[in-house]
């Protein structure tokens, strides 16, 4: 697989930010309505970009970090990932402008980086 035009996008969220505090402060009914709005927008975004989505990715769970000190539970801001194809790094980043994760949901940002290698050739 050529990686010349393949990019990893990682969605970041600080779950202690004011945006998340406001999200958690919503009533259950408000949050359900916002969830529906956001999920509908995500489906529309995916459909609009289906030709450039290489791997759908998905939400990320709790993190365990392995280091020389052993294994520990840690908290980071990584929340969702997806792999896309684009003509350039800039074009890949532009795919995520006004993305539902931060226009509807309280996600903070999307980091987009080129994949420098792919799976081994068989």
From TrEMBL:
This is YCII-related domain-containing protein. The lineage of its organism: Bacteria, Pseudomonadati, Myxococcota, Myxococcia, Myxococcales.
